[in-house]
Amino acid sequence: MKGKCLLIGVLCICGLSGICAEKLSIEVAADPRVELMAVVFRLAGNPEYRQSLVPEYNKRITEYFQPFAAHPVVAMAKELRSKHDVSYDAVSSMAVHLSSIDNLKLIVSINEAVGLDGRWPRERIPEFLTKLSDFAVQSKFKEFYQSNRGEYEKYEELLKNRAAELGITEWAEKTFKPAELPPFKVIPFMTAGGNYGPEINYGPGKYCFYAIVSMQSQPAKGIDYILVHDFLHSLVNPLVDRYFSRLKPFGNAIFPYVEEQMRRMTYNSPHTMICESFVRAGTAVYYYDKAGEMTKNGMVKQEEIRGFLWTGDLVQSILDARSKGGADWAFEQGINDYAGALSKYQERELPKLEDQKKKLMARTPKIVSLDPPDKAGSVDPNLKEIKIKFDRPMQPSWSLVKNNPDDFPEITGITFDKECVELTVRVKLKPGKFYQIFLNTGHFQDFMSRGGQPLESFNYTFTTGDSR
Question: What is the pTM of this model?
Answer without folding.
Answer: 0.71
